[in-house]
Amino acid sequence: MKVRFLALLAACTVLGWLAWTTATSSARPMPASSDSTGFTDQGFVTGVGQAGMTEVESGEYTQSKSSNAGVKDFGAMMVRQHTELGHQLEKLAKKQGFTFPTGVGADNQQMLDALAPLSGGAFDTLYVNDMVSAHQGAVSLFEQATKDAKDRELRDWAKRTLPEIKMHLRKAEELKAKLQ
User: Fold this and answer.
1) Residue 111 contacts residue 130 (beta carbons within 8 Å)
2) What's the pTM value of the predicted model, to 2 decimals?
3) Alpha carbon distance 169, 58 (integer Å)
4) Is 168 within 8 Å of 8 (Cβ atoms)?
5) Which are the contacts of 110, defined by CB distance < 8 A and separation ≥ 6?
6) Tens-binned pLDDT, residue by residue, of the chain (180 aa)
7) Dihedral angle over CA of 19, 136, 171, 66, nearest 10
8) How far from each other are the two terminal CA atoms of the chain, in whole angstroms?
């Protein structure tokens, strides 16, 4: 159960990060890599960690800013699951010698800053669109990690977490369809 939760947290983190990137149309550079795919284990840990923290914070916003029970429920789920996934990833990162991020990062902070002044329908629309975009990106990133992660434990964690990330994407897409 704990592993599934951390997997969800990581997924949501990455999804949030990717959603914001897509929503703002600004390319976020991944950390430098020595391979041709641009993927690095440390980059994955950093991106997923920052995205997870962002998912928790934006999920907390839903409780006071959303006008939709479904959005509030989804946000609460993001908080619970991404908190646990963050703890799992942080523990794994420390064990394997990776640096776990201490904050959301500048790009994710911009997304949170865009959500902060909104409420009601405007908040719901931006939040759900961000969640769909972020989770689409997270699915791709986790799929890449299942193949390209050099660290076996990190790769296995990504494999265990991927189904949860896909579930978050489905729920975000369902919410988006209901809001339209």
Assistant:
1) yes
2) 0.79
3) 16
4) yes
5) 20, 24
6) 433 333 333 344 444 433 333 333 333 333 333 345 689 999 999 999 999 999 999 999 999 999 999 999 999 999 999 999 999 999 999 999 999 999 999 999 999 999 999 999 999 999 999 999 999 999 999 999 999 999 999 999 999 999 999 999 999 999 999 998
7) 10
8) 34
Q: Write the CA distances from 42 to 9, 14, 122, integer angstroms.
A: 17, 13, 35
CA distance 136 to 133: 5
Domain covering 2-23+40-179: architecture: Up-down Bundle (1.20)
31: helix, coil or strand?
Answer: coil
pLDDT at residue 45, rounded to an integer:
97
Q: What letter does residue 116 receive in the DSSP assignment?
A: T
Q: What share of the chain is helix, strand, coil (3-state, %, to 5)?
A: 80, 0, 20
Q: Which residues contact 124 (CB under 8 A, 6 or more apart)?
A: 66, 67, 68, 71, 179
Tokens of 1: 């159960």
| 89, amino acid identity | L
Structure tokens of 96?
């394997």
